[in-house]
Amino acid sequence: MSQRADATHADPSSDGRLRLCLATHNEHKVVELRALLALHAPTLASRLHLLSLSDVGVREAAVEDGPDCRENALIKARHAAFHTGLWSLADDSGLEVEALAGAPGVHSARFGGLPAPGQSQDARNRQVLLARMADIPRPQRAARFVCVLCLHPPGSSASAVGPVVPPSAVSFAEGACRGWLLLSESGSGGFGYDPLFVPDAAELQQAGLAAARAGLSFGLLSPEEKNRLSHRTRAVVALIPALTALCP
Q: Is residue 6 flagged as an active site residue?
């Protein structure tokens, strides 16, 4: 049964801010986006009211069966826009390892298969990745995190139900962070593959971070440091003009 919200969700909040649905049930992502916007576009952040799918009563999750991160981001944003009647923003991200021909890539979230009893999916993914990379020397352990954001207007771009949105009305932004993989986990911060991923020194320099932080994994960097150079940060920064156009 469809969980599409009524049209009032497309209206601004009572305080005048624009309602923007993040196509996720993960509150962590909502908190992270708020922090990124507050850091990189504080005026814009004050004009947006960010909501998760859970906040607007949508229980259904999109079927992420696209061949790459761009298509999956579109699938999730389109799903949220149709079911909520709101402008919607989705992200899809992954880790691409050169020695594994770009894997896990679009399959990053479930790369390890089913976890053992009591083991988290993230821990299982890291365990399998380390096993696959066990014999790969340091010079060949290059990897990058990638993120694609999709901003979608209310309606549907691929459905006979509801208003059809032209492709030109949908915005995309991409970000990446290059680095390499450790031989074992380091740090407990962040999530996913963060304890294995070390950003290149050039990435730290570009973000204005101290050279002394070189060699530290995302799992050891503070959230504030990570938010200055992560793939998701760069995608958000690239999308700021499109978001600003919604609430000038």
A: no
Euclidean distance between CA atoms 213 and 211, whole angstroms: 5
Q: Which two tokens stand for residue 35?
A: 């922090």
User: Given CA atoms 161, 55, 91, 10 in this order, what sign does their dihedral have?
Assistant: positive
pLDDT for 48: 94
Give the DSSP H or E segment for 84: helix 69-84
| Distance between first and last Cα of the chain | 37
pLDDT tens for each residue of the chain, 248 residues long: 333 433 334 446 667 899 999 999 888 788 888 889 998 999 999 999 999 999 989 988 888 888 999 999 999 999 999 999 999 999 999 999 999 999 999 999 999 999 999 999 999 999 999 999 999 999 999 999 999 999 999 976 555 445 567 778 899 999 999 999 999 999 998 889 999 999 999 999 999 999 999 999 999 999 889 989 999 999 999 999 999 999 87
User: What predicted TM-score, i.e. pTM, was given to this entire model?
Assistant: 0.86
The H or E element containing residue 209 is none
d(CA 151, CA 147): 13
**Cβ 196 vs Cβ 126: under 8 Å:** yes
How many helices (DSSP H) and strands (DSSP E) are in the chain? 7, 6
At 90, give phi and psi (nearest 5°): -125, 150
Q: How far apart, in whole angstroms, are the C-alpha atoms of residue 9 and residue 177?
A: 35
Considering the candidates 92, 135, 194, 200, report the single residue annotated as catalytic: 92
